[in-house]
Amino acid sequence: MLSAFNAFDLTLLALLMTAGVALDRLLGETPRWHPLVGFGRYVQFIERRLNRQPGSHARGVCAWLLAVLPPVALACAATILLARQSLWLAAAWHVLLLYFCIGLRSLRDHAMPIAAALKDGDLAAARALTGRIVSRDTSQSQETDLAKAAVESLLENGNDAVFGTLFWFAVAGGPGALLFRLANTLDAMWGYRTPRFLAFGCAAARIDDALNWIPARLTALSYAVLGNWRQARTCWREQAPAWSSPNAGPVMASGAGALGLALGGAAVYDGEVEQRPPLGVGRDAVAGDIARAWTMVSRTAMLWLTVMLATAMLLSTLLSFGAPHA
Question: What are the transmembrane regions (predicted)?
Fold first, then answer.
């Protein structure tokens, strides 16, 4: 049964989420001592110890548990202890966890310099900057290739670094956001179909797929709402199944259709040209489309926050009408 506590809880959650996003937009990533950097080193240590050749599924599961459970358990314990001391301390802790986990401003800070370099005609700088955010070879890429890579990265990482984090924050607060972000980081580090990680990284990839299933579809739906709805829905339905990733496919196909761009296609990985399935419809990407993609990701974040706040206000209003009067 709905209660005033439910309305208060949802309102507080929406405000904490808004505060975390605002803090990220204001400060961006910490230049030193970022917790995810420390986590990455910890993960590398675990992988070196457990991923003995040939790797195994069992070792991959054990490594995932050793990497994720301790920090998440500590975050949960801190949440409980702070809540016993003060609601304000607990609220600040949730906001801080979300700030460390979300990467909205980081997407802008990495992508927009690529657009600026392309507009200045500095292809060498654009290639170097793009190579920092994608795994493909950019050494011979031209403007269209680099713009396409940057747009694809923004669309996909909008889900991985922003909306998946917000979804799990809504479900389980700061510890939920931390769980998702660590799981997503492990997938990025271990989820490769290479001889070294094919078996060892399987657990990391499958767990990330499971945690991302709902957020990815909400992200794809949001892109469609904020862009060309008909094209986005058509591309999502027809193109996403061709992608090996069950979550990246819907997100990028919908985003490409919403923007009216032709993405996907050929890309160079480890010296080999890989023909990827097509994404979207329309013209090839150019430098200006990087800003368009960033704007859509940013507006999607605002849409999610608005929906959360509006839902909390509506619930409070409905409960006030249903409350007994003296």
Answer: 63-82, 87-107, 161-183, 302-323
